[in-house]
Amino acid sequence: NTKAFIFDLDGVIVDTAKYHYLAWQKIANALNIDFTHEHNELLKGVSRVRSLDIILELGNIQASQEDKDKWLIQKNEDYLTYLVDMNESEILPGVLPILQFLKEKKQAIALGSASKNARPILEKTGIISYFDVIVDGNDVTNAKPDPEVFLKAARLLNINPEDSIVFEDSVAGVQAANIGKMTSIGIGSKTVLHEAKYIFEDFTLIDTHFIEELIG
Length: 216
Ligand code: G16
Ligand code: MG
Description:
There is one protein chain. By secondary structure, the chain is α/β, with parallel strands linked by helices. The protein has helices at 17-30, 37-41, 48-58, 65-83, 95-104, 118-124, 148-157, 171-179, 208-215; strands at 4-7, 108-112, 133-135, 164-168, 183-187, 198-200. The chain has a 6-stranded parallel beta sheet with strand order 3-2-1-4-5-6, with helices on both faces. The structure holds 1,6-di-O-phosphono-alpha-D-glucopyranose and magnesium ion (MG). 1,6-di-O-phosphono-alpha-D-glucopyranose binds next to α3. Its cofactor is Mg(2+). This is Beta-phosphoglucomutase.
């Protein structure tokens, strides 16, 4: 049996959410918008363009496309400065053993991320070779909860959506997996991710027996 195991990036493999937050905070501060940790939850799994719109809505700010483009560039340039020193130590606990186990079991592995910076992050953390397929923010037009990113990954792997398993930390991502008829596994809080079929606080709590059962 071969199943497709599709991993979200941010919040599942690496904790880049903290860097996104710092970079967005600078933009928000410059615009006098109060941007808290709770607000940041709204941006998880959401595209860069949509994230800026959400922040501007929080501040009740109408902006020209020109200004928006400028802030989007600023945000990404700042975000990239946090990635310069990134290495394998930033891989979240428990992720590597699961990737290794899936490889041993000859399962198909994909990345399904909204980020346009996914490839350099996988390279810097040294795990890009685990992925048979990478679908990221450069490859899709519809953002999560639209299932496009995951459906595209499954199609490229030649595996049915019903035989695909998605690891996600965002509500939008869990919904995308469910809409795509895939098995959703939430990584994070049970209250936030209650729509997921299975929920684990983090990858250290996922054991190989559970993965074997998913493989079937
Ligand atoms: C990630 C983050 C989002 C971020 C998006 C776009 O998605 O969760 O907060 O806005 O990527 O990132 P970038 O600005 O690098 O293109 P995911 O799907 O990996 O969780
Ligand atoms: Mg995520």
